[in-house]
Structure formats: C-alpha cells, structure tokens
User: Fold this.
Amino acid sequence: MTNAIKVGREAEGNVEEGETIVELDHVTKVYRQGTVDVFALRGLSLRIAKGEFSALSGPSGSGKTTALNLIGALDTPSEGRVLLEGKDLSTLGRRELSRIRRDRIGFVFQAYNLMPVLTAFENAEMVPRLQGVDSKERRDRVMALLADVGLEGMEDRLPSALSGGQQQRVAIARAIASNPAIVLADEPTANVDSETAEHLLDIMQRLNRERGVTFLFSTHDPRVMNRASRIIRIVDGRVEVD
Assistant:
C-alpha cells in the first residue's frame, strides 16, 4: 500500500489502525473515446477507515467522481482492485453487486435524485422497504432520521414542496436509512447557497460523530474540505503526495 492514506489532515487517531471499509489497490480506469484512450485514474491507491469524514479533492477532471463511482460499484476498474469491507467488487456477480449497493452503500448526489411522486418519508424509506424491513421498524427508523436532519413535520411533503436544502436533507436521510457501511457524497453542496451548505455539513458531521456514519465526499468546495478530518487530493488520476 502506498502512503496515500497520509495525504492531508489525518482523522482523529491513526487511520491505519481503524477497520478498513474501502480500499483502492493500484486502480486504473481508462475510457475509450474513438481511437484514443483517456485515463481517468492512474494506479490510484487509498484506504478509508470506519468512522472517517474524508474528502477527495482536486480540479475538475482529476478523477474524483470516477473514484467514487468505482467505490459505489457503479463502474468497474480497468486494472487494480476495489475492495469494500474486504470484498473484491470485481469478483462479484450482478446480483451481489446490486445487493451491496442497496445494503452497504449510501449515496448523496449533487442533484438530490429524489422520486418526485413520493413524499419525503416515502423517499427516505425506499431502501429499507426494498430490504424487507418490518413496516413498524421501518417507520420508526425513518421518522427518527427525518427528525435528525431537521425535517420533523415535513414527512408528507413532495419534493416540489421542499427547498433545495430540504431535498438534500431527505437525500441524506435516505442514504443512511439502510445502515450502510459508507455514505458516498458527490458534490453534495454544489446546488445550495452557503448558509444551507453549512447546515447540511453540520448535519452530516453530527451523524458522523453521534451515529458513527462513515462519509467520503467528492468535492472542490472549501467549505467541505474545511470540515473534513482528512483530505485526499487527486490530480490527473493519482493521489498527490506533498
């Protein structure tokens, strides 16, 4: 393993001593554009430990989102290994990958990605419902989460009746309703104003601290980087080591 885990500010304690949730082992990702090979990642290696609140940073086109998509089992590497809780994702079949995305990974997207015809509650309970969680347990869990993100009393509102910041709070609740191993947040503050961004970060930081939720951000927002316990800077598909 490279010294990539030492880039930026360390999480509290020694990152190497924590339980590893995610490992990228010399990962390369190449996209074919016509007759040209475009390298999105070039031998990227890093580890994310349980309980981290970390950020992948770097300029546009550096490979941040590609790395997040590989960790989220939304794409596959051209070379190298992506391991989630010790499982090499490239060795798993389509059904198992689907189960892992459902049960072990929470997603918070820049564009919220809520179902417009479902209420805040119905959006947040979607994954536990697919998991077959008992209806009472599901309701108790989701109502507690919506209250936790400041949406108590708004459970029956459709996304169209919520502000952008409120929609992103629903997305955060949805992301952790399945009790995932890690939450992947791709530019989660990009479409909200500064005050709302700070409120969202307050919420995610509190969930990290109080519930132990592991967060990994892809961002170039200094507000996110200021909150991160560790910053992993990616440039031209590689971890930049100072």
Notes: The radius of gyration is 18 Å.
